[in-house]
Amino acid sequence: MFCHGTQVLIYTGKSTYNSEPDKVEKGKTVQIVERLVEPYRDSFRTIYVDRFYTSVDLMKALSKMNLFITGTLMQNRIPKEIRLLKTSPEYRQMKRGDARKAKLIYKIDNKQLEAGIVGWRDRKIVYCLSNDTNNCEFDQCTRRSADGLIRIPRPLSISEYNKYMGGVDLADMRRLHCSSTIMGQNRWWLKLFFYLLDVGTSNSLILHNEHRKKNTRGRPYIPMNIVSFKMKLVEGLIGKKIDDLYESADKEKEEQHMLVHVVGTTRFRCAYCSLMFGKSTRTRWKCVGCGVPLCSMGNGKVTSDCFAMAHESEDIKKMVCNQYLLMQRKDRRENKDG
After folding, report:
1. 163 part of a folded domain
2. Residue 134 to residues 18, 138, 139, 231, Cα–Cα distance (Å)
3. Tell me: the pLDDT tens digits for 118-143?
4. What is the pTM of this model?
5. Phi, psi (degrees; rounded to nearest 5) at 197
6. Burial of residue 281 (number of CB atoms within 10 Å: 0-12, 13-18, 19+)
7. Domain span at residue 320?
8. Is residue 120 part of a domain?
9. 129 strand-pairing partners
10. Which tens digit of pLDDT belongs to each residue from 223-250?
11. Where are the alpha helices (DSSP H) in 21-78?
């Protein structure tokens, strides 16, 4: 699925793209952007796109629609004559903040137009294509280094790209930080549902923080993060706090450990008596949670409450369960030998 503002284009196969004969030769990414920006045709706006879509072919297509483009560019989409390889000596000599500029000339309807491509060295080299912003102009940006904060020059086209695409990148990072995922999302409609759910939740968090910020009356306000917001949202929908859900689940788990009468005349050896006293006390009662035969005071002639003592701690309970497994193995060996 690809989005641009209020425009949404869901991939549904080959029919998603234009099928006109004169557009068949265009790349899929070009056709996607063309359809999404159709409402802005002849508006002379600048379209900011990321490296997945940016290409010279897209720039030509948007120029025919009287639209401009600024976007980061993949290295394999850069013309060979101005491409800068990482193994080249020129790349190795570039320092942080250095840039290499090139002019790109292309024709649209017999008109000769110009665009600029700039390769800027940050931690790694970043390429930017623009026919709207002057790549020869620079501003400055702040970066962290071993010596602390430093100021380095930055091409204006990349500055403009960060300004208008930063919100999109931030929204994607916030959505992926706490995304809603379940098993079976290979079905397209589930992916679409949870994508829209995450986007809606992320947008709601922005509105929530803005509302709280305006109503603080000058007091400091710490914005809520996406994880805390989703927890509060779940609590509001179910009408309970998350901690209460865990407590109720623990209570249900504890209630499972209770004695039940075993139907029939067969009596089993108490695992606790066998473990602690080495006795073979017989009982018709089992713990429904552990599945282990245990004596209980008041049942038959038993004077000790083995059920209660076996559940005094997790360690004792594990020892009793292991003893019962050993008793079962011993019984199976004896039956096999007999």
Report:
1. yes
2. 33, 9, 12, 46
3. 888 888 888 899 998 777 788 888 88
4. 0.61
5. -65, -45
6. buried
7. 256-337
8. yes
9. 71, 117
10. 888 888 888 888 888 887 877 766 655 5
11. 28-36, 56-64
